[in-house]
């Protein structure tokens, strides 16, 4: 990559002479990047801990335990809730200062070969935030923290980097043209706008411009240089990714060979399997953590070149002794060896040969049969599922039928809601295959005959206390109290059910939360698949809750969740889930360790 540049012109890949781009200096910056990552991380961790504690007190004072997707209205109706919202905005502001601003300022120091003093960089980051105050600044912060991770163009904060549209929503969008077309149009619009304003934070933080001035400057730069920037930046990302993959591959090759040679020795094979899995996870985390700072460094380089019209390359670091580097690598290896030894001693407990995660068939049988049908329960039971999930709604005349959607349009061709039709009218409905609308009693009878637990979701606008009372009465009449769980997206409904009918198992479905959800008044926490990451499941289980994950249909997610510690997985792909469970029985020591550690650290 040639970065020769003339004043007012884009750098040209074919230009002769001048400074040239090199990969190695980027890797030389990584120790400094990690240092500032740690310093900023400690500051933010302390601040976030205080914000969480204060927010927890405020939430508790409203009579709630947590903020979740099914119980957040109180935030807008209480003064405590508004304070929690302000604290959340304060957290985003702190992350802008000590996460993004610090990285940009440090990148500028690297490019200008200026001596980096920690206190000076932190103070400069704090001072630069003054330009982000006001309505425009707040909108920019929300854009960077929320829209950027959703759209995927630009860079965002560590706090919100994993923010995505839940899979159960995105699957509906991609399967429905009426949703997909506007979503695609919005995504393209945001992609273009994200590129136009890509350098706005650099203009504000590095050159002290206002939000308005920075936006105008960013648009001007991109308009003039986008033909140069886009291919060169994509090439940079490709090179960095390839280098990271190559390094990880080489570092894992030797342990992999050792595992192969040690396969005749069970203890040795187990130890090196754990060691290799840990090493791979550490290397992946290492590059994952430095990827965003490296991107910001490269963007800062282009911002300075386009703004100043001068050639800039990441300079080589001065030669230094390798003793410190060797000591750090040796210390890390010693830690990994020690952890591997401990894990090996408890190998079968930590890395079970078979999945311990139970399978729950979504909409009674998933893809095995027509959705929410008695046939689905029968076919799912044949696979050995621990339960079947279904959706109950109330009719106009107070009866209870099974239907997932708000109306009958998709399955039965009628654009009316269950609450707008009587049972007699609903009985006349037919699917294209001649299937009728099942009743709750019919599915309870089938579940009892198949000895399958039925997870009954209290669904739609009719999910209220009356539904709880009526459904409980029907379940008791069928003698299914111990074989049924009441679940819902509405926390207040489940809170009433758990308080009034404690003999019933209750499960709360949610896909976003803040606060201690283990204190919620339910038995089961049913979390969206993207929340089932890292230590989340284990922490919820330590809080005394049973944890299920919904709705998991993609193969990669199925494998990860089935290799983890969840109590159950709700899926439409029952057959595939059991195929994966069977495959897991044939895994070798290395695969068992790798699958489990990936599930823990994802």
Summarize the structure in words.
There is one protein chain. By secondary structure, the chain is of the alpha/beta class. It contains 22 helices and 11 strands. It has helices at about 25-30, 30-60, 80-110, 120-130, 135-150, 165-175, 175-195, 200-205, 210-260, 265-310, 325-345, 345-350, 375-385, 410, 425, 440-450, 465-475, 490-500, 535-540, 555-560, 575-585, 590-600; strands at about 65-70, 360, 385-395, 400, 455-460, 485-490, 505-510, 515, 525-530, 545-550, 570. An 8-stranded parallel barrel has the order 2-3-5-6-7-9-10-11, surrounded by 7 helices. The protein has a two-stranded antiparallel sheet with strand order 1-8. α13 (about 375-385) links the parallel β2 (about 360) and β3 (about 385-395). α2 (about 30-60) runs antiparallel to α3, α3 packs across α4 and α3 (about 80-110) packs across α10. The longest helix is centred in the middle third of the chain and has 51 residues, at about 210-260. The protein is globular, with a radius of gyration of 28 Å. It starts with about 25 loop residues before the first helix and ends with a helix. The model is unreliable at about 1-10 and about 10-20 (pLDDT under 50).
